[in-house]
Design a protein that fits this description.
There is one protein chain. By secondary structure, this protein is mostly beta strands. About 0% of the residues lie in helices and about 50% in strands. It contains no helices and 11 strands. Strands 2, 4, 5, 6, 9, 10 and 11 form a 7-stranded mixed sheet that branches. The protein has a 4-stranded antiparallel sheet with strand order 1-3-8-7, with no helix packed on it. It is globular, with a radius of gyration of 14 Å.
Length: about 130
């Protein structure tokens, strides 16, 4: 049984930092990748960042580029999201997701429907 468990969310002041972790068990995603998505109240889920598990290639939404860094620890089968310079628009529930394969369409990594496994989410609240 595949499980993705996020941790590291919380309340932080604007301009602060948080690091999210996502521990994967039950399988690896070496043939595909993992990503972070978020959903704010009243809004649709949106892509934040993704990483190819084998190559380490990373992808970011424009809104977080330069502020967030996605990384993974292959040995621990764990995904991370370092979030710096947080602002109120970053307030959301953050979800990690795993994808078993790689696709070749433009921007495939940002499509939530291509991820088969999802964590339960962790709340990030940025106070201004």
């Amino acid at each position: 049984q595949v499980q993705l468990v996020e941790s590291g969310g919380g309340l932080v002041q604007a301009g602060g930092s948080l690091r999210l972790s996502c521990a994967a068990s039950g399988r690896t995603f070496s043939g595909g990748g993992m990503g972070w998505f978020r959903q704010a109240p009243g809004k649709e889920r949106e892509f934040v960042a993704a990483i190819s598990w084998s190559s380490g290639s990373t992808y970011y939404a424009d809104s977080v580029k330069g502020r967030f860094t996605i990384s993974r620890d292959n040995a621990k089968n764990t995904l991370y999201l370092q979030m710096n310079s947080l602002n109120s628009e970053d307030t959301a529930v953050y979800y990690c997701a795993g994808r078993r394969r790689t696709y070749y369409s433009v921007g495939y990594y940002s499509q939530g429907t291509l991820y088969e496994y999802w964590g339960q989410g962790t709340q990030v609240t940025v106070s201004s």
